[in-house]
Design brief:
The chain is an all-alpha fold. The protein has 8 helices and no strands. The longest helix is centred in the N-terminal third of the chain and has 30 residues. It is globular, with a radius of gyration of 16 Å.
Length: about 220
């Protein structure tokens, strides 16, 4: 597959992912009439369904990472060059931001926003370590018996992780950066994004070690 096609695939997939995450969050908050549980349910189901479709669509082209933490582990696995890691990450972050701005335009909101949703507590950082650890383990191990099971396993994991982590499972540095640019249901205060990214990299690194250890046994 041509390198340009792979980068474009990661860009478009990240655009789509953030449209799903932020758009469903706006719609859910609007229609739920203040019921946070209903809003989160709608947001999580939409995200899981959209993620599955995006992985199935772009997976054959670029691997459908849409996530610098995933690309980082693919580099550790020597499936991705360092140059590709950098370019994938740039495409993912750029795509995420474009996805957020596009969503604002679709919903008639102010295009450029900064979130005021503070997620800076330590419990959220711990949550992101665990969420990213789980995501990478699912990616690493769910396809051992049948590789075709991985897209659905990833989508289902993210859907459930919305509910079992206090941070609602960003588990993705590109998503963390992009969601700092939306002051809606899905946003994160920009000062909290760097902590999330560090936690996600730590979780990815721990998952890499755990998956290597488990695979050898």
């Amino acid at each position: 597959m041509k390198l340009s096609n792979r980068y474009l695939s990661e860009f478009l997939g990240s655009v789509g992912l953030l449209i799903v995450v932020v758009g469903s969050g706006i719609m859910a908050e609007t229609l739920s009439q203040g019921n946070s549980a209903i809003a989160l349910l709608a947001n999580s189901i939409a995200t899981g369904a959209g993620l599955y479709a995006l992985i199935q669509t772009f997976g054959p082209i670029s691997g459908a990472h849409f996530n610098p933490a995933v690309s980082f582990v693919e580099w550790l696995w020597k499936k991705l060059s360092f140059q590709d890691l950098v370019r994938y990450s740039i495409a993912q972050v750029a795509g995420g931001i474009v996805g957020v701005l596009t969503t604002h335009a679709m919903f008639g909101q102010k295009i450029l926003q900064l979130s005021n949703h503070d997620r800076g507590d330590f419990r959220f950082l711990l949550s992101e370590v665990i969420a990213t650890f789980g995501l990478i383990l699912v990616i690493a191990l769910s396809g051992k018996r049948n590789v075709e099971a991985t897209p659905s396993a990833v989508a289902l994991y993210i859907t459930s992780a919305y509910w079992c982590t206090s941070s609602t499972s960003f588990a993705n540095p590109a998503v963390s950066i992009a969601r700092a640019f939306t002051d809606t249901f899905s946003g994160i205060l920009w000062t909290g994004a760097p902590g999330f990214i560090v936690a996600q990299v730590v979780g990815a690194g721990l998952a890499y070690w755990a998956s290597e250890w488990l695979s050898k046994r």
